[in-house]
């Protein structure tokens, strides 16, 4: 037990206060006939809908003033909503009063040594949610970060504002070391106030304890050349609700150095390098298209989450273990120090995904239907357009994005059916699609002035080992059948895209030789660009035919009542690509999604047939959502909005569309030529592809990041070569 943590004064007086610009704590003394009250006034920023008109997206600044001084001023909104109850986060000033009886304090000081804690403190060796109910509902979702001269104290509260835990972080550790202590005690509101007062008293000689900031979550820890940093969420915005679980977009973050604030902590010769690394990380805007949820696993599909919960319930498991998909956890590298140190890292840290989430409501004769689109971008082989093409040695492709559309009838919001029948609500459906670069070794050199550089096949592998790894991974994720829709050009005056057409087709034919007849990869090529420019060419009609064929083969997920019906599941996935996996791919995915949407609405009993006509309300809303989805994916990978949209392929463009397309093309060219390298460095640093090592080149000195994304040749040779014939994992072919 450190002396600075030991209280030196009596905690019987309510003397703890904070220096927060938005919080005022006043202790008033009345005569004997009146009760003493503590007033805590909180000023919060008004919610910002972010300009989204389809649903109420509420923006929330950092929860300043809602920290424990001495009580939470406002109960945080529930992250698990009751059935059929709409949720609107509150804003404005809140006044909370507390009587003397509620402020009675123990005469024994609180400390972080569990053996010196009073006997009435709850010792909780199990996850907190065992005390509340459904798994994940009671996870800590609001935090207050306090600082003393030598330590940070992160105080987290659960969703019911009834239990609190403490994480102690040393600010004086040796460079390169992260010292975190996770207190395994669970405190109630009165006990945590006593603890804060005690720590404040124990640090009076060095300035006491102050509130540094209040946050919505911890994203993890990162180190460059010296000390570690802690990354916190300071602003969030609600963008969707699924099964009563809220999903948020990150609108602001703060990087807190785990130092004493003295510049002497950094070696002088490394200070410029440290500053440059910070500048590179700042090029990654975490306030755009990063999402999280306190209680719903956004890294997995709805089908996976519900079936897993149902299987766990049938097996008698109260709370199945966490099952995050590491492929889509973008702060995976930042979570590693917490996973190595903490007993329950995900009680403190939030996995985040990168991509796109949107939700819209559709009213059909008084029945409310929610349409939700979730796009998850893979963190493997991630990067900018011309810098990340094709596939790497491990089978991961560039611009790998999983798109899920969830359609649910919101008569009840919960996943559960009445009685209750857990995870058996039959009003939830979903459909999944995949996009990704052509899984061959190919690149484009953008150092010249051409907006469309030549395509080079850098390596010809007669056994297509990288493509084999890629498709084996698709079988593992989605099962068979895999339907490949290749939209690149087939005929060109000067061959560019067509170079890849025949090589990709040869790869599929080679891989199919070893697959069982009913598990072969389905390959369909359609020169969408040529069809759109040909007089009388029916792009949409052709895509509609392909879409019906795809949805017939893969099916879609429809949750079923455990007592009356089993879930209908999706088996397999449509893998769509063009050369960039942007414009043409998004249009094709929209048509496939539109066909799936009709089947989903039919399964819910909203419509009778399985056909949705264009220009109806449902299709118009879905069109706008998918356009926003495509724009976001295009900005992340290509640096600009979509150049060709559904209006282009439906030939609905107005007179100004051509000029808009030219502007977007120029933006894409500018970003690819001048800004992509900066974004790529930020990706490599944040994702942990590059980590600083003494004596190794700095990130900005690398002439290429090839070896950051491809396997170490020595490690590759030690693993041995894969079987050229049986390239797949047999278990992945099972449905």
UniProtKB/TrEMBL annotation:
GO terms for molecular function: phosphatidylinositol-3,5-bisphosphate 5-phosphatase activity. Its main location: membrane. Keywords: Hydrolase, Membrane. The keyword Membrane applies. Residues 1-107 are annotated as: Disordered. One of its GO terms (biological process) is phosphatidylinositol dephosphorylation. The keyword Membrane applies. GO terms for cellular component: endomembrane system. Residues 281-639 form the SAC domain. It is found in: Endomembrane system. Pfam families: Syja_N. Residues 57-78 have a biased composition (Basic and acidic residues). Residues 1-11, 19-39 have a biased composition (Polar residues). This is SAC domain-containing protein. It comes from Cryomyces minteri.
